[in-house]
Structure formats: structure tokens, C-alpha cells
Amino acid sequence: IDEVAFLNDIKTQDAVIRNFEIMGEAAHNIERYHAQFAAAHADVPWNVVYTMRNRVSHGYFQADWELVWKTIHTDLLERHSQIRTLLAQITQASN
Questions:
Q1: Where in the sequence is the domain holding 85, given as residue range(s)?
Q2: Which of 39, 62, 72, 86 has the fewest CB atoms within 10 Å, i.e. the most exposed one?
């Protein structure tokens, strides 16, 4: 999907917002309930992920869709890579 299609597709926007909410809540819970883990992996911007969740969740009809698009194509790729690396480390350590 390109940017123009994204900016005009309410279903896709809604799905993206829902996923940002899930990621943000997960990041917040990691900081809240696993502070040592979050601190040990401070390269992951846990609070930034949660802040983005708040911005899109509480923006209601005023979401900045261009910002969301840019986040998907810049920050999200890096976050995905960071989380995959952490999961691999955790999996390896538990085996």
C-alpha cells in the first residue's frame, strides 16, 4: 500500500492504530513490570513507543496520519529489528 492509499483507507488506518495501541501497551508494561529488563535494553525507546500509542489512541479524529505513515516506514522497522533481536536472545538464554 502506498501513502495515498493509506491516507484514504480508514480500515487500514484503524488496523494500524490498533497495532500501535498494542505495541504501546506492551512497551509500557515492560517498563512498569520489568523495569530492570527495560533499563538493560535502554536502546529500545520504550517510552517513545508508549507515547506514540497515547498520541494515536487519544487523538480520536485528529490523528496525524502523515506522522503515522512516516513512523511506519522509519521507526517501526528499527523497533521490529530490536524486538526480534531481544526475542532471539531470550529464546537462546532459556534453552
A1: 3-94
A2: 62
Q: Which residues are catalytic?
A: 53, 58
pLDDT at 95: 86
**How many Cα atoms sit within 13 Å of 23 on the Cβ side?**
23
Query: Closest by alpha carbon to 6, among 71, 77, 69, 70?
Result: 69
The number of folded domains in the chain is 1
Which tens digit of pLDDT belongs to each residue from 41-61? Answer: 999 999 999 999 998 888 766
Question: How large is the average pLDDT for residues 17-38?
Answer: 97
Report phi then psi at 74, rounded to 5.
Answer: -125, -75
Residues composing the chain: 95
3-state DSSP call for residue 3? helix
Which residues, 6 or more positions from 63, have their beta carbon under 8 angstroms from its beta carbon? Answer: 13, 17, 55, 56
CB atoms within 10 A of CB 68: 21
